[in-house]
Amino acid sequence: MAPVIKNLEKRKIKNLLVLFIIFSLFAINEASCNENGKILAYVAGCYGCHTSNPEEPFGGGYEIKTKYGIFISPNISKDEKNGIGNWSKEQFIKAIKTGLNPDDKPYYPAFPYNWYADMKDSDIIKIYNYIYSLPAIKKKDANHNLKFPYNIRNSLWFWRFANKILSNQNKIQNKTDYKRGQYLVNSVAHCGACHSPLTFFSIIKDYNNLSGRQETSKYLNDSVPNISNDITDGIGSWTISDIVFFLQTGIKPNGDFVEEDMSSIIEHGTKFLTENDLEEIAKYLLEIK
Ligand code: HEC
Ligand code: HEC
């Protein structure tokens, strides 16, 4: 009897070992998938804009002050009642790429979905999986505090129509031949959402022009610098390593620290990118007109 039991024990241990190895491989694989999803969620600003308290990641409540009033980001954690816990992947992709909710109601462009329109579905699913790997946050959405008539959600149909006619956004939608740096700048990290000039009703004619923005109101002090490769007005005199260092640390070539919204973009976003991705961004910024 004894040797049989011994053999059985041995086999059990062997099986357990094999199981353990398979499980670890799976866990590592899962962890690195989530790591990719995490980096994307940070660089795309989902984390920064949907988190007001670091202990409640994606719980919403972050305020976006604009001349139309204050937007308060919703809870996008996996909580079923307050967040998006009962959304399918398809509903999530639709919201991110088209700015329509599961009932086809339009979202405000304070949610920069127009930039995400040409994000790869596989990248959006990585973000979804990452958000769903985190705890559900039980925090109710707060209402936006917008001026009339911007508080009427249906007025967004007019905005969407005007944006379609007046901007080049249609042309860039579903572009698939992006180079890495161009994809990060023009889609995922949506640099033009702040750095491209605004026209009437905050419509951006050329989404990826990056030549900066005039102040829209003294109270908001919201001008944004030119980051095109123009030598005098833009950042054409910066080197690739100046840009990489800046997007990691917030320190400009002249030694000044960056301020305002850009420091959050770096702190919760670009500093998580690999050196290689940052170099691709820098190369793209220095070569575009
Ligand atoms: C600049 C801030 C900002 C960024 C960046 C941002 N969002 Fe949002 N998001 C918002 C705001 C504001 C709303 C609410 C829009 C509305 O009420 O029409 C919103 C709405 C949403 C909704 C709809 C929630 C609901 O309950 O209907 C989802 C889902 C969402 N965002 C996911 C994301 C993801 C994923 C990312 C990153 C890829 C992201 N957001 C990036 C500001 C942002
Ligand atoms: C939420 C709005 C916002 C987004 C998105 C954004 N920026 Fe900025 N950026 C700013 C603001 C505001 C400043 C000015 C900060 C200051 O004066 O210190 C700035 C400053 C900069 C500067 C310094 C320019 C100079 O001459 O001092 C660079 C470079 C820059 N941003 C690059 C980028 C890149 C690259 C991206 C995309 C990965 C990006 N920004 C996305 C708002 C934004």
Describe this structure in words.
With 289 residues, the protein is mainly alpha-helical. It has one domain. It has 12 helices and 3 strands, in the order H-H-E-E-H-H-H-E-H-H-H-H-H-H-H. The protein has helices at residues 2-43, 46-49, 89-98, 113-116, 121-132, 156-166, 169-172, 180-188, 192-195, 240-249, 260-267, 275-287, and strands at residues 63-66, 69-72, 145-146. Strands 1-2-3 form a 3-stranded antiparallel β-sheet, with no helix packed on it. Strand 1 and strand 2 form a beta hairpin. Helix 3 crosses helix 5 (121-132) and helix 10 (240-249) packs across helix 12 (275-287). The longest helix has 42 residues, at 2-43. The protein starts with a helix and ends with a helix. The structure holds heme C (2 copies). Residues 44-46, 49-50, 64, 71, 73-74, 76, 84, 95-96, 101, 107-108, 110-112, 116, 127 line the site of one heme C.
In terms of topology, how is this protein built?
Layout: H1 2-43, H2 46-49, E1 63-66, E2 69-72, H3 89-98, H4 113-116, H5 121-132, E3 145-146, H6 156-166, H7 169-172, H8 180-188, H9 192-195, H10 240-249, H11 260-267, H12 275-287
Antiparallel strand pairs: 1-2, 2-3
Helix pairs in contact: 1-5, 3-5, 8-12, 10-12
